[in-house]
Amino acid sequence: MNTWRRNLIGRVVQISVAAIVLATLMNGCRGNYGDLNTTTGSTRADFLSSGRTQSFFTAIQVDPKSEDSAGPQFVIAEDLDGDGLLDLVSAWNQSQPVQIHLQRRSDSGAIRFETVTLAGNIPVVSVAGLAVTDFDQDGRMDIAVLIKETLLIGAGCLGSASPDGDSLLNKGVILMYFGPDDPQQTNQALAWQDRDVKSSFLLGTKGASAPPEEHGFTTMAVGDMDLDGDMDIVVAWNPACSESPGVLLFTNDGSGSVRRGDWTVSPIADPFQCPPPCPTRELRPN
Fold first, then answer.
1. Cβ(122)–Cβ(211) under 8 Å?
2. With b meaning 16 or more CB within 10 Å and e meaning fewer, what string describes 214-223?
């Protein structure tokens, strides 16, 4: 038999087998999702009652079902208590801005979460970022929350005078929570120590109906920016000051400074802006 005929027959067989398998899956292995939302009497249960979803994943309610607030805005997975299981940290638009959800396992392997709410001394209207890392280098996870609006009076600018009428502007700040010395106390809210980053209490622009990415603090990232072995903080800021919108670097000056809330802040230079007169550069083709 010619080679092209053998190849043709082989390809036809492959296509036929694939069609039979596909038909079998469509007719005999189709998922039944009819009971995802069921009604018992006058009560309609959602999919969390059974945990079933239209996927291979099982849904688990992490935060308490009685929770009634603006809802979580950010969530990060990290092992907070050192037990080898990933826990969750969520940030909320409320005066108790952080919840930690510690993963627990039953003897049979069933997953549940123990939720602890972390409060602070700062009123919180809205949050703009969340980070979890070891900021003070004591081997335990800490939490940083970027707060867009605190309602506090006294926020300022970097190098310019604060504008009048700051009650109409966003008063943002970075709020830290330092992990307990004893990992066994991770589920005790009072064992977490809160401290605001003093240099981050800054005024931002504000709009009544504009999206959150357009005013004040908008996002946050962490990393060892100066390569000195500890974690620094970078935020995006739309100021209500003479400064141009840009990126701010909060430098970690060591464990003691971090614990006191003393961070050095400096704007990251915008390569597309320069004070006049700007030097010009002639562009030449390669």
1. no
2. ebbbbebebe
**SS3 call for 223:** strand
* Nearest to 258, CA basis, from 97, 90, 133, 118: 133
- How many angstroms separate the Cα of 200 from the Cα of each of 12, 57, 232, 286? 68, 40, 13, 45
b/e for 228-266, b at 16 or more Cβ within 10 A?
eebbbbbbbbbbbbebeeeebbbbbeeeeebbebebebe
Locate 233 and state its tokens: 């903080």
DSSP state string for 80-106 = SSSSSS-EEEEEESSSS-EEEEEEEE-
Written as one letter, the residue type at 94 is: Q
Name the amino acid, one letter, at 132: V
- Give yes or no for a contact between 242 and 157, defined as CB atoms under 8 angstroms apart: yes
Over the stretch 196-245, which tens digit does the pLDDT of each residue have?
Answer: 999 999 999 887 666 666 789 999 999 999 999 999 999 999 998 888 78
Q: Which one, of 159, 231, 238, lies nearest residue 199 by Cα?
A: 159
Percentage of residues of the chain with pLDDT beyond 90: 49
Contacts of 227 (CB under 8 A, 6+ apart): none
CA dihedral 206, 251, 227, 136 (to 10 degrees): -110
At which residue do the structure tokens 């079902």 appear? Answer: 65
